[in-house]
Specification:
- The chain has 13 helices and 14 strands.
- With about 400 residues, the protein is of the alpha/beta class.
- The protein folds into 2 domains: about 140 residues, Aspartate Aminotransferase, domain 1, CATH 3.90.1150.10; about 230 residues, Aspartate Aminotransferase, domain 2, CATH 3.40.640.
Length: about 400
């Protein structure tokens, strides 16, 4: 007998839980797409996103997902044959690199595996070899949702500066935005890409590229920018529709505006603190489970773990069964083991992910951890006791 009644809880690493306020904001007729309220709302969204990213630079809005803004950033800055280096510590680092290859860029991947962050020393050594400064850009994912690693962006910037290399630093913040601390200008990031469906708590369909003056100047000199991805008319439009290269995504804009209002009410610092606390609660539960069983966090060092998602390994047990039990019997949807499709991890079956991003509080998370604990017991998967209690101790520190 299934108890999966009531509202499902989706703890995949995006799309995240959609607040009722955000969903209600979309329940309205189509607006005037030429002038008036929608223009003001769009301008306010772009201003607020820049503040959240910690940048005084420009923000371009695209009707797309994260893969789209990967292409947008590359399209504006580089052309066929340009050399870029992608730092890969999970699936999405490779994904951005693959996008560049398809676009004709000369892409080199520095591989750091599935279990550790990018090493700034390796980047430094590679840039020292590039005495002709042929490398035009460095790509890195701040928090890769496949591995749940969180990379140290300031140390990467320092590595570039110490060598005196002019390459642009491009950072994917799709998973980390409004979950992990991020300071675009203070950290020396030239281009940031993000999307609306994770920490920004909005249904998928909007994505953003933020860029500084250095990147803007390089883009202006690029003769091969495509009409759709070109960020110049999107940031300096003569007519409103140029912000979108066509019809505005009207109801997603209403949703994003409402989500940003919620973010402003909570406050940027409070949001970072909440995500850090909920992440530590998940880790405490995993530590308890690991005391008498195979479950463990994929990223060993907490310093390099994402505050938005945790990837959990359980070799050699089938976590697909656990995910199905949680969904079918209790209404909890967890993330699959993305990027682990090798025999070592049972083609991904011995891996699952818990998304703890966006619209989430202790009752929701503790309930999810208790449900996972029940599933482990129901399926007779070895695990230590006291996971929920350990998580509750962490959330008891809320003040």
């Amino acid at each position: 007998m299934s108890f999966a009644r009531g509202r499902e809880l989706v703890l995949t690493p995006g799309p995240s839980v959609m607040p009722d306020r955000v969903l209600r904001a979309m329940q309205r007729p189509a607006p005037n797409i030429y002038e008036g309220e929608l223009v003001e709302i769009t301008d306010s969204i772009l201003r607020d996103l820049g503040r959240l990213a910690g940048t005084a630079g420009e923000t371009a809005l695209y009707v797309s997902n994260g893969h789209g803004v990967w292409e947008a950033a590359l399209s504006n800055l580089f052309g066929p044959g340009d050399a870029i280096v992608a730092l890969a510590s999970g699936t999405f680092g490779h994904g951005w690199a693959d996008t560049g290859r398809v676009m004709g860029l000369d892409v080199e991947v520095l591989e750091f595996g599935r279990h550790a962050p990018v090493d700034p020393r390796a980047l430094s050594e590679r840039l020292k070899e590039d005495t002709a400064h042929r490398i035009k850009g460095i790509l890195v994912v701040h928090a890769d949702t496949s591995s749940s690693v969180r990379n140290d962006v300031p140390r990467l910037r320092q590595a570039i500066d110490d060598v005196g290399h002019p390459a642009l630093l491009l950072v994917d913040c799709i998973a980390s935005f409004c979950c992990d601390v991020y300071e675009m200008d203070d950290w020396g990031v030239d281009v940031t890409v993000t999307a609306c469906q994770k920490g920004l708590m909005t249904p998928p369909g909007l994505a953003y590229v933020m860029f500084n003056g250095k990147a803007a100047a390089i883009a202006r000199a690029n003769p091969v920018r495509s009409p759709y991805w070109n960020w110049s008319p999107r940031t300096q439009p003569e007519r409103f529709y140029e912000r979108f290269c066509g019809t505005a995504p009207t109801h997603l804009l209403y949703a994003q505006r409402e989500a940003l209002d919620m973010i402003a009410e909570e406050g940027r610092a409070a949001i970072f603190k909440r995500h850090a606390l909920l992440a530590r609660a998940v880790w405490a539960a995993v530590v308890a489970w690991s005391s008498d069983g195979p479950l463990r966090c994929n990223i060993e060092d907490p310093e390099f773990r994402s505050h938005a998602v945790t990837t959990i390994l359980a070799d050699p047990h089938d976590m697909l069964q656990l995910r199905r039990w949680c969904e079918d019997e209790a209404g909890l949807i967890l993330g699959l083991g993305l990027g682990f499709l090798v025999p070592e991890f049972m083609e991904g079956k011995s891996v699952f992910r818990i998304g703890h991003m966006g619209h989430l509080n202790p009752p929701m998370l503790l309930g999810a951890l208790a449900t996972i604990d029940s599933g482990l017991k129901a399926l007779d998967i070895p695990h230590g006791r006291g996971a929920v209690e350990a998580a509750a101790v962490v959330t008891a520190t809320i003040s």
